[in-house]
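Marked as duplicate of an earlier ticket. Keeping the data here for the record.
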Amino acid sequence: MITLKEGDKAPEFTTADQDGKTVSLSGFKGKKVVLYFYPKDDTPGCTAESCNLRDNYSVLQKQGYEVLGVSADNEKSHRKFADKYKLPFRLLADTNKEIINSYGVWGEKKFLGKKYMGIMRTTFIIDEKGIIKEIIKEVETKKHTEQILGS
């Protein structure tokens, strides 16, 4: 359950991306970050969301944003997903769910009447100083860039 709120300092993290390169939030000081959490590589909603961000990546960059995707998938899965859909941004492997838990996006979900635990699709907009400016909990996968830039 998300306990973070707008105005909070974004929790620091360090993990590997789809290329095995180390990524830390502190490495983005001075830049705005779109940190989006998604349930699973190469699933319909996650693909729609990631491709929307891909299609609008240059617009987001012109606005000063770096885009980072996070799921519990491993580096190999992320590499395959990024290659398949030509994703130009980094996908972060959080197989031990440390980042997922520190941002509070692991929780109970429902699908077809069944309850289970999983990643709640959520996006955090983080400013140049590492402060959370906005939390998007109701992500529209096919219009996600509009939601981000509308903030």
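See parent ticket for discussion. Residues 74 and 93 are 5 Å apart (CA to CA).
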